[in-house]
């Protein structure tokens, strides 16, 4: 198919085999296993000589169709769907890391990503090196021949820090280290990670893609841009599979199967529907967020509004260059105290008190007492988590109604 716009292309991906009933939507194949005509056919499928489904922990037609649609619009070398964003992150890092190797990252990470690195991976002998990733030279200094990845989030949550991806990607190229980015916060309809030098993209598809918080899911996109013969963990594999494909081959043939983290067909079906409206929802939510934050800046009760699309934000220029004028639908605001934050949340009427991001409904929470509530005060401080901050995710309501709710809750 010739290259069309996202909206057109995403709707018209054909599925591989004809359905018995010519269903216009991809059917949901709720099956664990697949039947074969002969023992020889079975052998061919199980030994990978033909691409047939055998067992749904390994592959499933409905999930594969979801992966294929994402692959068509992103041009990724491979797309792998998993049963959560955390599964995408953990499977990716387990694929490249090993005892004695190190990962360079920022202390500004999603709470469970931080915990996975510090509590889980460290226990298996992987060293975690925290750097200030707004300083690419600091990242470069921390890398050595045992560095297996540079991991970052494109806009950190909830600090809203933006890394200069082209600068960091240059550092990574020089050192022979893959750049792995969590791009959950800006969907691939609005931001090309590959064009910014990201080798492996991980996404919590629970967020924008699921189409209104319908289920938990994750994606790994391998852009085929890294030479895995330079990877301390995958060089041996690359000698067998080829330098471009070692990551994907091991991910799909070993890591995903052994950990049992493949997406389920019901979730894949709902997330496929989500893809069809993703760009529409994203553009509306992001535009509303810019409008709401511009108004909130004027209110005296708010100490600070943190959104990288605002002109006075320290990351404004970099954010515009990387993500355009409306960088996502998440922002934070600081009030005078923790009590002011709790009172504000308790008075909300339209905006829901809930975690999650990019639901169709607007959501708010106090990160320090929820997502980061079980961390020690020292950990919270090292991650720049303030007791004065409220995080918002803006939904599809009108900007007017959202502003009215925030304004009344501040009284
Ligand atoms: C939600 C989120 C995750 C984790 O995704 P789950 O689907 O909840 O496992 C990871 N990174 C970011 C930036 C997120 O917002």
CATH architecture of the largest domain: 3-Layer(aba) Sandwich
Largest sheet: 7 strands, mixed
Structural class: alpha/beta
Strand proportion, as a percent range, falls in 5-15%
Bound molecules: pyridoxal-5'-phosphate
Please report the total strand number as a whole number: 12
Q: How far from one another are the termini?
A: 55 Å
| Rounded average pLDDT | 96
Q: How many helical elements?
A: 14
**Rg (C-alpha, Å):** 22 Å
CATH class of the largest domain: Alpha Beta
Helix content: 25-40%
Query: How are helices and strands ordered from N to C?
Result: HHHEHEHEHEHEEEHHHEHEHEEHEH
Q: What is the CATH superfamily of the largest domain?
A: Type I PLP-dependent aspartate aminotransferase-like (Major domain)
Explain this structure to me?
It is a single chain. This protein has 411 residues and is an alpha/beta fold. The chain folds into 2 domains: 6-266, Type I PLP-dependent aspartate aminotransferase-like (Major domain) (Aspartate Aminotransferase, domain 2); 279-410, Aspartate Aminotransferase, domain 1 (Alpha-Beta Complex). The chain contains 14 helices and 12 strands. The strands form 2 sheets. The chain has a 7-stranded mixed sheet. A 5-stranded mixed sheet has the order 8-9-12-11-10. Helix 7 links the parallel strand 4 (147-153) and strand 5 (179-182). Helix 10 (265-296) crosses helix 14. The protein starts with 5 loop residues before the first helix and ends with a helix. The model has no long low-confidence stretch (mean pLDDT 96). The protein binds pyridoxal-5'-phosphate.
């Amino acid at each position: 198919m010739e290259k069309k716009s996202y909206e057109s292309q995403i709707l018209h991906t054909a599925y591989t085999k004809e359905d018995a009933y010519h269903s216009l939507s991809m059917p949901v194949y709720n099956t664990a296993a697949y039947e074969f005509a002969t023992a020889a056919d079975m052998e061919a499928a199980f030994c990978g000589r033909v691409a047939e489904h055998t067992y749904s922990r390994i592959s499933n037609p409905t999930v594969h169709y979801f992966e294929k649609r994402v692959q068509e619009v992103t041009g990724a070398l491979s797309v792998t769907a998993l049963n959560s964003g955390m599964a995408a992150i953990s499977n990716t890092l387990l694929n490249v890391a090993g005892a004695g190797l190190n990962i360079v990252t920022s202390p500004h990470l999603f709470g469970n990503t931080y915990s996975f690195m510090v509590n889980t991976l460290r226990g298996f002998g992987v060293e975690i090196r925290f750097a200030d990733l707004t300083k690419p030279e600091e990242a470069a200094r921390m890398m050595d021949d045992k560095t297996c990845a540079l991991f970052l989030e494109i806009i950190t949550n909830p600090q809203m820090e933006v890394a200069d991806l082209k600068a960091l990607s240059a550092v990574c190229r020089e050192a022979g280290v893959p750049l792995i980015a969590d791009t959950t916060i800006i969907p691939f309809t609005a931001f090309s990670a590959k064009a910014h030098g990201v080798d492996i993209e991980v996404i919590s598809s629970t967020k924008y893609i699921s189409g209104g918080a319908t289920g938990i899911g994750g994606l790994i996109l391998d852009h085929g841009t890294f030479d895995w013969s330079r990877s301390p963990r995958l060089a041996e594999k690359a000698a067998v599979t080829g330098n471009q494909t070692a990551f994907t081959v091991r991910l799909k043939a070993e890591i995903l199967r052994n950990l049992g983290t493949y997406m389920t067909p019901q979730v894949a079906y709902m997330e496929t529907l989500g893809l069809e409206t993703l760009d529409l929802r994203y553009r509306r939510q992001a535009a509303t967020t810019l409008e709401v934050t511009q108004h909130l800046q004027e209110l005296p009760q708010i100490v600070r509004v943190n959104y990288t699309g605002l002109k006075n934000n320290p990351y404004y220029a970099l954010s515009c260059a990387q993500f355009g004028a409306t960088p996502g639908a998440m922002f934070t605001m600081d009030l005078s105290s923790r009590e002011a934050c709790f009172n504000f949340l308790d008075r909300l009427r339209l905006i829901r008190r809930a975690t999650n991001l990019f639901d169709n409904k607007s959501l708010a929470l106090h990160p320090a007492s929820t997502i980061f509530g079980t961390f020690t005060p020292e950990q919270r401080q090292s991650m720049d988590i303030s007791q004065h901050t409220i995080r918002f995710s803006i939904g599809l309501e009108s900007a007017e109604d959202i502003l009215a709710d925030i304004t009344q809750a501040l009284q």
